[in-house]
Amino acid sequence: MSFDLVLFGGTGDLAWRKLMPALFQAFRHGTLPKDGRILGIARDDLTNEQYRQLIQQRFAGVEGAKRPSPEEFARFAELLHFQRLDLSRPGDYGRLKDRLAQRNADVVLMYLATAPSLFATVCEQLAAAGLSTPQTRIVLEKPLGHDLASNREINDTVRKAFREEQVFRIDHYLGKPSVQNLFALRFGNALFEPLWRRENIANIQVTIAEDLGVEKRGAFYDSTGALRDMVQNHALQLVCALAMEPPISADADAIRDEKLKVLRSLRPWTPEAITQFAIRGQYGPGTVGGEPVPGYRDEPGVSPQSTTETFVALRAVIANWRWAGVPFYIRTGKRLAARDAHIVVNFRAAPHAIFRTPLGAANRLVINLQPRDGLELHLLAQGQDDRRHSQSLTPVHLDLDFDKRFGAERVGAYERLLLDVIDGRLNLFVRSDEQEAAWRWVEPLLDAWQGNDADLRPYAAGSWGPSAASAMIARDGYCWSEEL
Ligand code: BG6
Predict the structure, then answer these.
(1) Could you tell me if 340 and 445 lie in one domain?
(2) Which residues span the domain enclosing 94?
(3) Ligand 1 centroid from CA 17, angstroms
(4) Of these four, 22, 130, 231, 456, which has the most CB atoms within 10 Å of its CB?
């Protein structure tokens, strides 16, 4: 099978940080179809050779085995080509069409790694130039809009040019092996399913903590914030994977239909619920990994009066039979104590206490997403700790480390997703109705937080976020896992 990957934003940040390394890995692993071409698109005036040299610089800083040897890069570079294109000039799309026609590949992927404000223009121009053909697939990066209305607008424009099954909306969390394992855990094993409901589960906690700050993306982040950047997409997709009903098959729409039902079951926010169960924070100066780091408002590109949240903790309520009364706590933030994404499923305590140990002490399943990928089942056992009281139990846990089991060098998220687009597999991509339902749910929070700093809580860089996040969950009688 032959493919052309047309990479809009071919010299941009995403191509540089994620896509080129992922394409190179797929090339190295031999999974990228041999008859392929990667056509970088940008306004710059570069020859193919100059583009290859530019991309080679990307790999210069890579350490260890991931760094290609000069010979290996030279072979990869044969795939790399460049086309100058000004996104607003129709004539440039005509030239692109001619270039693609010369090769007439089986599959043409239009990867829009550009600012989302350009998506509509590019789609319109592609359609006008006759570049939307049955062979075409279009890949859209997040953020797809900044609220429900702008998301709908993009989806409507895309829909005019492409059918839904040609549209690949990326949420790179779905490409992570650890997130796919979540589906495997729930739907590949019958063990957990009978327990996976309100009768047995007290609450579920989803944490996506980052120790990094906003890096060089200050200006982008300042107009985005953690709710749009992480909750509307990544965190809600994790909630869907945790809460959805078993799909009738592994087909893309069977999975997406079930995810959509979860998003539609999320109880809408009321002003009272926002006050009590939606916490936002912004990091101040602090210490991360032993190094002093500046506060958010001192980051390059960020307004010194910024009211943008860099931390969010929420209580989501899924109003259906399976989950009635089970809070789903979501927490994410920049400059937290560690890079650590994990899910904790807290099972209910035994209904009647015959031991002395507090019953909340174990009874939980921890799904580690990153940097470790694995499962921990925390149980109570008869330990040796207290020789006088044979009735006091000790928490122990079963620990399954997928990195050790399968090797840490598994297919990366972008590598997986790029190969899926080439193969036309939509399972790990987000449908427009899912996206709209997710925007609809976060929108009252966006409105409440827009342009004001009421209850915007400061937290020190390197901490676990504002104490209000702990107070929120404590009100329900629970605590975050690191507070146990
Ligand atoms: C991106 C966000 O979608 O995800 C970034 O825009 C964030 O702000 C990143 O850092 C986190 O991804 P990962 O794979 O490092 O957890």
Answers:
(1) yes
(2) 3-169
(3) 12
(4) 231
CATH number, domain with residue 107:
3.40.50.720
- Nearest-angstrom CA–CA distance, 317 and 429: 24
- 147-168 b/e (C-beta count within 10 Å ≥ 16 → b): bbebbbebbebbeebbeeebbb
pLDDT above 90 coverage of the chain, percent: 85
* pLDDT at position 152 over 80: yes
Residues recognised as catalytic? 234
C-alpha 179/C-alpha 247 separation (Å) is: 16
The CA R_g of the chain, rounded to the nearest whole Å, is 24
Return phi, psi of residue 202, to 5°: -85, -45
Question: Rounded distance, CA 374 to CA 361, Å?
Answer: 21
Q: Is the separation of the CB atoms in 162 and 109 below 8 Å? A: no
Neighbours of 394 (CB within 10 A): 15
The amino acid at 161: A
> Is the pTM above the cut of 0.90?
yes
Tell whether 150 and 223 lie within a shared domain: no
Measured in whole angstroms, the distance separating CA 198 from the mean position of its chain's CA atoms is 26
Cis peptide before 371 (omega within 30 of 0): yes
The answer for residues whose C-beta is within 8 angstroms of residue 191's C-beta and 6 or more apart is none
Task: List, edge to edge, every strand of the sheet that includes 36-42.
Answer: 80-84, 36-42, 3-8, 107-112, 136-140, 167-169
Domain count, the chain: 2
Q: Does residue 427 fall inside a structural domain?
A: no
**Banded model confidence at residue 359, pLDDT cuts 50, 70, 90:** low
Residue 19 Cα to ligand 1 midpoint, Å, equals 14
Pocket test for ligand 1, best of 19, 144, 172 (most atoms within 8 A of CB): 172
| Residue 411 Ramachandran class (φ > 0 left, ψ -120 to 50 alpha, else beta) | beta
Question: pLDDT tens digit string along 398-436?
Answer: 999 998 998 877 788 999 999 999 999 999 999 999 999
Beta-strand relationship, 374-381 and 394-401: antiparallel
CA distance to 30, 32, 76, 134, per residue, from 1 (Å): 14, 10, 18, 15
pLDDT at 53: 95
Q: 383 or 202: whose pLDDT is higher? A: 202
Q: Ligand 1: which residue has its CA nearest to atom 5?
A: 229
Compute, in angstroms, the gap from residue 371 CA to the centroid of ligand 1: 13
Residue 374 pLDDT class (50, 70, 90 cuts): very high
Q: Residue of the nearest CA to atom 4 in ligand 1?
A: 230
Please tell me whether residues 51 and 163 are part of one structural domain. Answer: yes
Residue type at 93?
Answer: Y
The chain-wide mean pLDDT, for the chain, equals 94
